[in-house]
Amino acid sequence: MDRSMVQEIVEKQVLTVAKAVEEKLDDELHALERLDLDDLEVLRERRLKQMKKVAEKRSRWISLGHGEYSEIPTEKEFFSVVKASDRVVCHFYRDNWPCKVMDKHLSILAKQHIETRFVKIHAEKSPYLAEKLRIVVLPTLALVKHAKVEDYVVGFDELGHTDEFSTEELEERLAKAEVIIFEGESSKLKSKAPSKSVRQSANPDSSDSE
């Protein structure tokens, strides 16, 4: 057989094999591309479901009064509040300066932690609750999870024994009790301004003394 003919046959075979390999690779690439698209679609649907679930939960929280710091007018309503929300911070207060300091911090945290209901109730007008929960020192925060008081923040003893504690210090204490969802230095990152105590930012002359 002529050498040129042999070379031509070999070249045709090589081209045929190369074409077959190329077609196979193309098929595999298309399959991989299709698989990636399917995976992305699955992830997209999963993400949409998660977002919808979060939106529904957020809407429910807002309907229950989350996102703001409000007062409970009666002892009866206290039980309704703790049954409706999984996490509740209840401030037992009276009209004095330490309780006003606590009010300022809780007003800030209520907006930052919509997952938790922040409320206050006048201790002297709630004798049954005060006795049942053994509220003696004011301010006292009752930390409620799933309708059960799990922990207390009594006065400022755990906050540096001073009314000049920062909102972040109180936030960390509430996070320790797992009554809020805390992500490190989230509150500090929300404001570029240096952290101030409430006393530094408020006028003590305008408040009641203890």
Automatic annotation (TrEMBL):
Coiled coil: none annotated. Residues 74-157 form the Thioredoxin domain. InterPro entries: Thioredoxin-like_sf, Thioredoxin_domain. Residues 187-210 are annotated as: Disordered. Pfam families: Thioredoxin. It comes from the Eukaryota. Residues 198-210 have a biased composition (Polar residues). This is Thioredoxin domain-containing protein 9-like protein. It comes from Nicotiana attenuata (Coyote tobacco).
